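Blinded run. Sample ID left blank on purpose so nobody reads anything into the name before looking at the predicted structure. Input follows.
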Amino acid sequence: MKILLIGSTGMVGSRVAAEARARGHEVTGVTRSGKDGTAKADANDAAAVARLAQGQDAIVLAIAPPRDGSDPVAPLLADGRGVLAAAREAGVRRVVIVGGAGSLEVAPGQRLVDSPGFPDLYKNEALAHGALLDAVRAEGSGLDWTYISPAAEIGPGDRTGTFRLGGDRLLTDADGNSRISAEDYAVALVNELEDPKAVGRRITVAY
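Blinded prediction complete.
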């Protein structure tokens, strides 16, 4: 499979690249800087992304919203919409998006990001990811998209290959913790690329 991976040097993106390549897939990494052997493009530049997407089987968007203190919603939405437009222009139907956990429900109609005690440090980023999910649901028609939310906590760790998949509800373990390693998140994402089971919807992955 040929995969265009936007954000290939980030914490999650680098692990998705490694997992996909280990399984024999061809990964073209894309970053804003074009460093470390990656192609250079902004996700919001649909024409540039479309040129890179020609002949690819799937596009993976694995970028975080800006963390410079500015409102991250508009930039992340522009990136997501740029990728959707690029996929259509290049004729690539499969789009997988690395999402956030904040929009997952902790109770019917209650999102994690709206829960008391949700850290202010991550709130704007969580709201931006939630806005992107809403936009993809509203504007992703005609594309085989999947939005994959991690657990509440994600970071570097071990690749176990053992985890649970869910839908719109936050997954927790017996102790009430919600976590996943970036390595196992990557396993779940590449599994979905190889064997699509969640086309047109959001899923989540956690231990």
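Unblinding after everyone has recorded impressions. The chain has one domain: 2-206.
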